[in-house]
UniProtKB/TrEMBL annotation:
<dbReference type="Pfam" id="PF13414">
    <property type="entry name" value="TPR_11"/>
</dbReference>
<feature type="repeat" description="TPR">
    <location>
        <begin position="477"/>
        <end position="510"/>
    </location>
</feature>
<dbReference type="Pfam" id="PF13181">
    <property type="entry name" value="TPR_8"/>
</dbReference>
<dbReference type="InterPro" id="IPR019734">
    <property type="entry name" value="TPR_rpt"/>
</dbReference>
<dbReference type="InterPro" id="IPR011990">
    <property type="entry name" value="TPR-like_helical_dom_sf"/>
</dbReference>
<dbReference type="InterPro" id="IPR050498">
    <property type="entry name" value="Ycf3"/>
</dbReference>
<protein>
    <recommendedName>
        <fullName>Tetratricopeptide repeat protein</fullName>
    </recommendedName>
</protein>
<feature type="repeat" description="TPR">
    <location>
        <begin position="511"/>
        <end position="544"/>
    </location>
</feature>
<feature type="repeat" description="TPR">
    <location>
        <begin position="443"/>
        <end position="476"/>
    </location>
</feature>
<keyword id="KW-0802">TPR repeat</keyword>
<dbReference type="Pfam" id="PF13432">
    <property type="entry name" value="TPR_16"/>
</dbReference>
<keyword id="KW-0677">Repeat</keyword>
Amino acid sequence: MGNHRWIRAARRRDRDLLRDRLDLPPVLAVLDAHRRLRGPYTAAGTLMRLIGQDALKRLPELGPGHNIEILTSTPELAHLVPPAWTTLEWSAGEGERTRFYSRLHTLNIANGLAEFLRDYLRALGGGPRTLVIENLHEADATDQEFAAVLLRRRDLGGLTVVAGTGTAPIADPPGELVISLARILETCAERVDAPAAEVPDAPAPDARAYVDGDGTSDDPRLLEAYERLAPAERARLHDERAAELTGRGEFSLLLGAVPYHAEHGGDPSGAGLAALRTAMDHCQGIGLYQAAAELGLRGRAIVDRSCQEELWWHFTNATSTVLASLGRADESLALYDEARAATDDPAIQMELAYGTAMLYARHYPEPRRDYQRARAWMNMSIAIGSLLPDPRKRAFHSVFGHNGLALVEVRQKRAQEALRLLEEGIARLNRELAPHEHVLHRAVLRYNRAQVLGAMGRLEESLDDYSAVVALDPDFPEHHFNVGNILRRLHREEEAIAAYERALRLSPPFPEAYYNLGDARLELGDVQGALRDFGYTIELDPAHVDARVNRAGLLYELGETDAAWQDVTAGLDLAPANVHLLCLKGQLLAERGEVEAGLRALSAALRHDGHLAEAWALRGVLAYRSGDPAGALRDLDRAAELSDAPEIRFNRAVVHQESGRYASAAADYEAVLAATGDEESGERLDACLAALRQGPADLPA
């Protein structure tokens, strides 16, 4: 792990001057992350254009393994890797898109790009390198995630990241936060504030340079010269620059500089909106929601509803959808309300009602969800859809309205009613539509039925539905992940492992797949494989508490107590009330001879969960070791009430035996012997029975 630096200054020139004076490893690349250049993945895409061809020549397997990451960040490399989006969804007809990526998708892509860079650096022979990422305070959320991942990962060899920002606090992207670059910089990089250098005397700058720099310069003289231009001249320069960049044929320019220039050129409501729409639709389609939201809001600021109604609705609908996906539900609702007041079109009102229902059922955080309102809006959508004149459209919208209603039923714990709605919808589409119509939508219904069946414990039926969806849509990783989850619940671990590995081959790396792999391997007795998978889960997501719990437990069992302690302390920093980590902390403290501290940790666990048999049992053992047999028995009795685990009864039997209560000890030993055949229990049972034959019954506790 490199010695990362965070250089702050108001102007990039000052940051560059300071960086040149630092003692840094050889520079791999200097990247500008300003989102006006190429929009999302401006920096990451620049890096991939610099190293991608050489990396794929040295390591051809990186192409198929990271095609989604490469094509999402760097569409100019499309000719070097297999296509990424070949699923049923992307081959479906117009209007059939119903599935959208999780907001975690871009974080997974960032981790995939980090893997690509890691393997490339190894192929170069290793050794320390420096990667400079400038203008991170102006970066799209995707590049902020990419930089944060590089800063926090520990498996990138000697890579030193130098992050350049302004002096103001770095703003996190609005919405539900996945990862905070500001926090990562504070904890993972050494901050260096660059002094402001004197500005040398120079001729007045040419305003064209500001436009040719795509509006990214922080030179106040250049900005002032640009602002002094007559509006018509400014627009002309922007139009010329937009034409020049478009002529390069590099698609990523259409996501940043081209729409910027087009909306500031001579035809913002024509060429500007067209450029913004192209960029917004692309970003929405591949899960780059923060960029799509920004582009959509910029488009809405230009579009004139009175004469561009279709375009206004397109920007409004797309923007509200991506805002909802980002957890910005209030902003989304405001757009829905505005649209409702602006139109009497029944089809639009139907879509607005459906979208509003989804806000209340899915997109608001749990404390603010309102299933009654969701149900009311969904019924409104269904009612409007039932009046459509076209019978096929009427059937389709009715079924998918009831599909949305099924989600509400699931959230309100009425799985049977949700199942009824889904099965009736599947039957109706099969009855009223031709087999080739709405294939994707029918797959979605079956997928949703699989989820409901799984929640109801009808695992074989759920697996049948998931398998049918996989057959229709074999390239979508989430389907394989869900198949793996059901197979694990059916105790078919080897098949589950194959499903998870298939999901990972089709997807950027994501923590839950590795975590579930680790659990499945552990069930099969593959401790080292499980440790590896839990470890990589933590590499991808250091805040994954369950992976910390499982790895710490395995390390403890293997006698690696120092490593176990590191996971316990790191996990408790994240989740101070985690009872499993508190239990393990108690054990580790006791082994260090800190019995009182161990007892306090176990007592804390029991304050959080008084039904945790493990904590009662461990506290009983420690109480016995500290010379409190009566307290030990109280805790072990409570543990035995909660669990019939043989080890609990064995430990209680030992306390009984050592305290002279041979009949009680014998009863526990007999139970352990019957359950496990444990030889020591048999020997101790014989000793207790012999003692009973020679003396009185149990002494009082």
